[in-house]
Specification:
The protein is an alpha/beta fold. It is about 35% helix and about 25% strand.
Length: about 375
């Protein structure tokens, strides 16, 4: 809430609630159905409906679950499901929820809760233990799943512009398996093991990429690099926190400068992390000089983690383009190879641009010396974030 107040002060206005938008579902080649959410209000309604209709098992994992009205609504729905005989499993990140009363995460018997700890073993000694659980997954009855950037809380329903997906059909297995693997890997002896369900086969239209720090696996970064290198027409990226490493930065510049790809990056004008904003701005000069277009989203906090390339390839998930997400946290991104879905994602991007201000090179070069000083002072922190 404090960050939201800061954004309002910077803009000098009260930000109205984000208007609800509903999107039609789309079936991809493997028979899975995907629905895009750009409204937290619509997403939470459908997540709660899925929970209320659950008959067998609910798997809910969220980086943040606020103890506010929305969080309490989810808690009541989970408890009600358990009381009617549904197996309910909940994972939340201990660090991200330090401001939430511990009593909020106390559930009656029937709801199994895993708190990913603030410190895990010799956390300071091994990079395998550094990552936070930054994922947001809901799977109900192994038939419907949700994944994307939205945390659970009232603020996110109307004040944050994020992107989430609902998945039905064969691709739900990827989300189910991601939850089960994490649960069985991290759970204490007091919690039950979860059974794996078999995959429906090898169909390439939708794939889930999972960063697993404990196993030193970080495929989401590789997914981005490969997709950017394949681009020959367009790259549209929406990034809540854009602090690319050298390889991703060079790949974007090469695409724009040497292959003639139209590269557009949408970032918040003012995010909820001031230091991240200054670090992100440290890359703007090189990008703009290479012909990359940068747009700064106004009004609400844009928190989405999406990309669409050549109107063929898309990704929606939990990973930001920064070191913490790509080489540190537990994350999950869906990769979708489908031109009609990519067209839907491009339409979302174009709609967002209507609330964004383009940044020109002349404007950037004329920024005040104080801004340049902040960028220089904070630049060494870039590899840490």
């Amino acid at each position: 809430m404090f960050a939201d107040k800061v954004r309002r002060m910077v803009r000098g206005q009260n930000v109205p609630p984000l208007k609800r938008r509903d999107h039609d579902p789309h079936t991809v080649g493997d028979g899975s159905e995907l629905t895009i959410y750009t409204s937290g209000e619509a997403l939470f309604d459908d997540m709660l409906t899925a929970i209320e209709q659950a008959q067998h098992r609910i798997l809910l994992e969220s980086y943040i679950i606020k103890g506010d009205a929305t969080g309490k609504t989810f808690k009541r729905a989970l408890i009600a499901a358990a009381q009617r005989g549904v197996d309910v499993y909940v994972i939340y990140d201990g660090f991200a929820n330090l401001v939430v009363r511990p009593s909020f995460f106390r559930f009656p018997p029937g709801v199994s809760v895993l708190r990913y700890p603030l410190w895990s073993g010799l956390a300071l000694m091994s990079p395998r233990r550094w990552g936070r659980d930054h994922r947001k997954i809901l799977v109900v009855d192994d038939t419907v799943g949700f994944v994307g950037g939205y945390n659970i809380g009232s603020l996110y329903a109307t004040q944050w512009r994020d992107t989430h997906l609902r998945v039905r059909g064969p691709a739900v297995w990827d989300l189910d398996n991601a939850f089960v693997d994490f649960w069985n890997m991290q759970k204490p002896a007091s919690l039950p093991m979860l059974d794996q369900i078999g995959s429906t086969g090898w169909k390439p239209h939708i794939r889930a990429h999972r960063n697993v720090p404990r196993q030193l696996l970080y495929p989401i970064r590789g997914m981005y690099l490969e997709a950017i290198d394949r681009a020959h027409v367009s790259i549209d990226i929406t990034a809540a926190y854009f602090i690319p490493d050298h390889d991703i930065l060079d790949a974007l510049i090469d695409a724009a400068q040497h292959r003639g790809v139209r590269v557009r990056i949408l970032v918040p004008k003012v995010s909820n992390h001031v230091v991240t904003d200054w670090l992100s701005r440290g890359f703007y000069g090189r990008l703009l000089r290479a012909g990359v277009e940068i747009y700064r989203y106004t009004d609400h906090m844009v928190h989405a983690k999406t990309a669409t390339i050549d109107n063929q390839w898309s990704t929606v998930g939990t990973a930001n383009i920064d070191r913490l997400s790509l080489m540190g946290n537990y994350e999950v991104n869906l990769e979708v190879l489908d031109p009609i879905f990519a067209d839907d994602m491009r339409n979302v991007f174009e709609h967002d641009l209507q609330k964004a201000i383009p940044l020109t090179l002349a404007e950037w070069d004329s920024r005040p010396w104080v801004a340049r000083a902040y960028e220089a002072i904070l630049r060494p922190l870039g590899p840490l974030l």
